[in-house]
Write a structure and sequence with these properties.
By secondary structure, the protein is α+β, with helices and mostly antiparallel strands. The protein is built from 15 helices and five strands. A five-stranded mixed beta sheet has the order 2-3-1-4-5, sandwiched between helices. The longest helix is centred in the first third of the chain and has 43 residues. InterPro entries: CdaR-like_regulators, CdaR_GGDEF, PucR_C-HTH_dom, PucR_C-HTH_sf.
Amino acid sequence: MTDRGNVDHNPYLDGLAPLLADASATGRRLTRDELDSRRLLGERAAESGARLRPLIAAHVREARTCWPTGTPSPTDVMAAVEQALDAFIEGYERAQRQAMRQEVAARREFIDDLLYGRSDLGQLAQRAERFGLRLSHAHAVAVAQGEVAYDEGDDVPRAVERAMISRFGDREILLTTKDGRLVCIAPGDQSEVLSFFAKHAHVATDGGRVALGRSQPGPSGVVQSYEEALGTLELAERLELDEPVLRAADLLVFPVLTRDRQALVDLVVNVLGPLRDARGGAGPLLATLSAYFDAGCTAAEAARRLSLSVRAFTYRLDRIHKLTGADPSDPTDRYTLQTAVIGARFLDWPDQPI
């Protein structure tokens, strides 16, 4: 019997039976020290990983098994049981909240270190395994930006996370927020993951823009891909690109064009500078070129986008040709003009002096 009692002994019920007997005998309430002792046991139970539901059932069984003898009022006994159990649950939940806060803090610290590359790469790789990432493999990062800033517990990130979990289960994916944006980190060989994220993030953010960085190897690859995605978002804003989902791999020419700012300034001034002599300034003719190139050099479509007749639009193209000496319909001149238009967008010319 003694051995069986040791096997069945539940340390989180220690002191419950005599406490109930003493409190119910007089109908008194539990003292502060008695309540604190039950809270402490609840905290220990949570810290050990014990599940709450079986512990509540164990309290009820203990009360029934050790029901005080004599003639105590059942109401008094149950009042003592209720107090003891309530204190135990309070301690359990308090420990769980503390553990959750620590987990959230550790996750946020890891994400900051990961995306900023501030930690030792070896230690970062070890910490990453705790959050389901193997940084020895290649990873790619997608970033979604909406009209408002998002925190990790907001409805929008949670909705996207539910969709991701429902579709991909427990794959090595990390979904989080950073600086108000949604961030998804996925294995570099699983492009379908980021495509799925982009689709749902675009919808969840009410038409927000999503940028996908390229797959990069190793722990530092996450930082590189993340910075590529951020750069793509900035590029899309500056160039006023309409596409909701942009891939850094498709826009590699633009960073090349902007790497030498002075050369870009010279190109814009020399090629497009004469447009400032037009009636109304360079703005309308620059918009004409932008619409023409965005429409695949189809004059009818470009005219429709600008709400102009085709005749009026072609007149503008002729005017550009006369002012700049470059013919938008000529393949060689077209490349020079289009590159200059891209440069003008980057430099915010002619609104800003260069």
